[in-house]
Write a structure and sequence with these properties.
The structure holds two protein chains of two kinds.
Chain A: E1 4-10, E2 16-17, E3 20-21, H1 26-49, H2 52-79, H3 86-102, H4 108-127, H5 135-156, E4 165-166, H6 174-197, H7 199-209, H8 211-216, H9 221-247, E5 249-250, H10 258-270, H11 276-291, H12 299-313, H13 318-327, E6 328-334
Antiparallel strand pairs in A: 1-6, 2-3, 4-5
Chain B: E1 5-16, E2 19-30, E3 34-38, H1 45-52, E4 60-65, E5 68-69, H2 75-80, E6 83-85, H3 98-106, H4 109-114, H5 116-120, H6 126-137, H7 155-168, E7 173-177, H8 185-200, E8 204-208, H9 212-218, E9 221-226, E10 229-234, H10 236-241, H11 243-250, H12 252-261
Parallel strand pairs in B: 3-8, 3-9, 6-7, 7-8
Antiparallel strand pairs in B: 1-2, 1-4, 4-5, 9-10
Helix pairs in contact in B: 3-6, 3-7, 6-7, 11-12
Classes of the chains: A mainly alpha, B alpha/beta.
């Protein structure tokens, strides 16, 4: 029998010369910009094409999860810290913005940035003792934090206890709300992509690849891990702060494990280490999860089937698969 | 050599549980010299380097570099002072091209301090500086080797990459942990001039080696370790003639036989 194998050839668009883009034609220009434009324009028109208020709200939630997924992907695949602390970040950011909004009377455009920065600092300080841990140990510790914080709030009956904090300002209208979160996701997505390609990003990747060599290069790995955790947790806190202002309420459900687990599933589906993949993963998973609400408790079953299907048949993720198809020709050749 | 000692190690002791990996090892290292450290497997050579560079904490003893006590300082602080090391099992960043491997040390505080604009990356970017360093260490600039992923490089280049990482920090001392091991004779022959060039550039070197002939051709002094203890220290010719060294290397029974035959 004749044996054949698949051959992959890079598409011959030579636009990059040593860090500079040297664009020669509209065709090459569009080869580079169209995928990015599709994402940007697609995200921006989403609120218009959604039928009704309910689905527009779903878009906002997608963006919150996308922030968490981006922060997970950044920490796990560019710094080597597998964090299950999504709920921790959301909760910290959410409660902080609630406190600043209700107790100090700060409007959302002030309380959200404060909650982002302060939340990032608090999360980093709390995670600082765990930074020497690696792999699954770090994951377990970060999983404990939201549980512990939720129990503390419940047991000591502080910050509204089990009732939560109510009466938080919402955004002026739903368009502001949606375009704010969409713009934030897009800015952070492209900002992170820029960051990981900077020299600083290389150091982060160095910490993941080989932390001993980074130490031997005269750099403290704890400092760089802390910086990365600050960036990632600030992103999560930003998401939490937006979420609280969207719901006009904060409570113990902000520490729910959904916020830790769903971003990971989105990263698996979207393509680990691509940054844009997790955003796409959220765009698929969150609406699917909403659609499955009609099935009641069977929802989790269908949800799991979709996840397992992706893991078995497309374990590399949509973006990795898509990038390969986009950048390379494939053809069958005789062996 | 009557210069001042750049590195003083006093009674360096390291116990792993009940095993004494290092037992009261003391030596001085003078500026600009090459000290070879030899010894059978498990004699504590790598442990000594790990202790000096702060990768493991000593049980007791004192190490000072240029008069400053560096005992117990964290590894990155010691590297920041210019005491750099290579790893016996090479530790490149496998997922990056060879030249990007050097961007990381060039980003360090020491490189920013010592490298001026070249290391600082303000006017000249770190990519160009790292290609310069790689060329010094034997990666041909115009070939594709510096741009290959570190995971695809052969051992010889990885060993050079280890040295290059030290050079990027403009070091005062390099502690080489078996840079010749795993290399072919011709690769070693091409590394030797490199080591001599480092010495001429004023860098003090400690070299752990099993390739005695090559080591003795470059080393000014040699120290022999056995079971964590210092056996002897001196010029290569003396050391190789020493009875205790022969015994350590060949074992006492065989040493007798060797002597009987001689």
């Amino acid at each position: 029998m004749e044996q054949r194998r698949r051959e992959r050839i890079d598409r011959g668009v030579k636009v990059r010369s040593d860090g500079l883009y040297a664009l020669m034609s509209w065709r090459e220009l569009s080869y580079l910009t169209v995928p990015r434009l599709v994402l940007i324009v697609g995200m921006l028109i989403l609120p218009f094409i959604m039928p009704g208020m309910y689905w527009q709200r779903v878009i906002s939630i997608v963006c919150i999860y996308a922030l968490l997924a981006l922060s997970f992907d950044f920490l796990a695949h560019y710094v080597g810290l597998v964090s299950l602390g999504g709920a921790f970040f959301i909760g910290t950011g959410g409660y902080l913005t609630a406190i600043f909004n209700t107790s100090f009377g700060f409007p959302p455009y002030l309380s959200i940035p404060i909650a982002t920065i302060l939340g990032g600092i608090i999360c980093t300080l709390l995670l600082l003792p765990c930074l020497p841990l690696r792999g699954v140990y770090f994951a377990i510790v970060t999983l404990m934090y939201p549980l512990v914080l939720a129990r503390i709030i419940e047991a000591m009956d502080i910050l509204g206890g089990t009732d939560g904090i109510m009466g938080i300002d919402d955004f002026p209208n739903r368009w502001v709300e949606q375009y704010l979160v969409i713009a934030v996701v897009l800015l952070i997505l492209f900002g992170l992509r820029r960051l990981v390609n900077l020299d600083l990003g290389l150091v982060f990747r160095g910490v993941k690849d080989n932390d001993q060599a980074v130490r031997a290069s005269g750099m403290s790995i704890t400092n760089y891990k802390a910086l990365a955790v600050f960036i990632a947790s600030a992103m999560g806190c930003l998401g939490g702060a937006c979420l609280v202002h969207i719901y006009m309420w904060t409570g113990l459900s902000l520490f729910a494990l959904d916020f830790s687990i769903l971003p990971i599933a989105a990263t698996v589906i979207g393509g680990a280490g691509t940054l844009v993949g997790p955003v796409l993963g959220c765009l698929i998973l969150v609406p699917v999860s909403e659609l499955l609400r009609e099935f009641g408790t069977l929802r989790i079953v269908f949800y799991s089937i979709i996840l397992v299907g992706f893991i078995v048949f497309r374990s590399e993720g949509i973006m990795v698969y898509g990038q390969r198809k986009y950048h390379q020709f494939e053809r069958w050749t005789k062996v | 050599m009557n210069k001042e000692a750049i590195l003083q190690v006093r009674d360096a002791t390291k116990a792993f549980g009940g095993v004494l990996a290092l037992n009261r090892v003391s030596f001085d290292l003078y500026e600009g010299e090459i000290l070879g450290i030899i010894g059978p497997n498990g004699s504590g050579k790598t442990t000594l380097i790990n202790c000096i560079t702060g990768f493991i904490k000593m049980t007791s003893g004192k190490i000072s570099f240029r008069g400053k006590n560096i005992t117990g300082k964290p590894a990155h602080k010691i590297a920041d002072m210019g005491v750099t090391r290579t790893f016996q099992i090479m530790r490149p960043y496998y997922s990056m091209p060879a030249y990007k491997n050097l961007v990381i040390p060039l980003f360090s505080p020491r490189a920013k301090r010592t490298g001026g604009w070249r290391g600082g990356g303000k006017l000249g970017d770190r990519d160009t500086v790292s290609i310069d360093i790689l060329e010094e260490i034997g990666f041909e600039r115009d070939s594709y080797v510096p741009y290959k992923l570190a995971s695809t490089l052969p051992t010889g280049y990885l060993k050079r990459l280890e040295l290059a990482r030290c050079l990027a920090l403009k070091p005062e001392m390099i502690l080489c942990d078996e840079v010749f091991s795993g290399l072919s004779m011709s690769e070693i022959a091409s590394m030797l001039p490199l080591i001599e060039r480092l010495q001429m550039a004023g860098i003090t070197l400690i070299m752990i080696e099993h390739r005695l002939r090559e080591l003795f051709s470059v080393a000014n002094r040699v120290m022999v370790l056995n079971f964590g203890e210092k056996l002897i220290e001196g010029v290569p010719e003396e050391v190789i003639e020493d009875e205790k060294v022969k015994e350590a290397y060949f074992g006492s029974e065989e040493a007798k036989e060797v002597m009987d035959h001689a």
